[in-house]
Amino acid sequence: MRIISGSFKGKKLLQPLDKLTRPLRDLVKESIFNLIQHSNQFNVSIKNSNILDLFAGSGSFGLECLSRGSKNVTFVENYSKAISILKKNILNLKLEKNSNVIEKNCFEYFNNSNLIFDYFDLIFLDPPYKESNINLILSSIIEKKILKKNGIIIMHRHKKDDDEIPNTLNKINERLYGISKIVILELSIN
After folding, report:
1. 167 part of a folded domain
2. Helices marked H in 56-133
3. For residue 165, with 0-12 CB atoms within 10 Å meaning exposed, 13-18 middle and 19 or more buried, which class applies?
4. What is the largest CA-CA distance in the chain?
5. What value does the mean pLDDT take over residues 123-134?
6. Does 118 or 82 have the greater pLDDT score?
7. In a domain, 122, yes or no
8. The domain containing residue 143 runs over which residues?
9. Residue 42 lies in a domain
10. Could you write out the DSSP letters of every residue in 43-70?
């Protein structure tokens, strides 16, 4: 696993050795960034953006964003082995000032009333394939109003998953990559 482009292009990233963390494949990651950069379906730029990386794992997606010029990434992860690797990856790239690691599961993160939420240009949601409560996280994103008006949500799911999408979100793109499915959502305009 490596950084594909930007100021850290080619840098290798550590990843947990166990099977409990499913890293985002480079091919899928590269396709996501090509879509963001070249699609006229949405108006999001990685440069100077504020990113939320949910179920962050080793941080591959968020670190790629920082390499490409994002201002800040908030990583949310609760698996201790993944957190350890994530922190090492951040330190190895010297990105501590641009990174915020929240050691909670995503459901606890959204239920924490003491937390001051930021506003995000892009939210990356990469839960375990077996996670079935994605609609709760999507509803929390809407309820907390943390996605900027022109922001997008990118979900990495198993191709057979049929997640319930709140009607306050529009599906604007969906792509299949082997067993992976990438779904891109935006706020509905009322």
Report:
1. yes
2. 60-67, 80-92, 106-111
3. middle
4. 46
5. 87
6. 82
7. yes
8. 57-187
9. no
10. ---STT-EEEEET-TT-HHHHHHHHTT-
**Residue corresponding to tokens 């990438």:** 182
Q: How many residues does the chain have?
A: 190
Q: How many domains does the chain have?
A: 1
CA distance 152 to 186: 5
Distance CA 178, CA 83 (A): 27
Task: Give pTM, 2 decimals.
Answer: 0.93
Contacts of 125 (CB under 8 A, 6+ apart): 54, 55, 134, 137, 138, 153, 154, 155, 156
CATH of the domain at 77: 3.40.50.150
Q: Residue type for 172, please?
A: I
Whether residue 190 is predicted with pLDDT greater than 60 in this model: the reply is: no
Q: How high is the mean pLDDT of the chain?
A: 89
Cα–Cα distance measured from residue 47 to residue 44, given in angstroms and rounded to the nearest whole number: 9
> Residue 66 falls within a domain, yes or no?
yes
Structure-token pair, residue 169 = 């979100």
DSSP annotation of 12 reads: B
Q: What is the pLDDT of residue 17?
A: 77
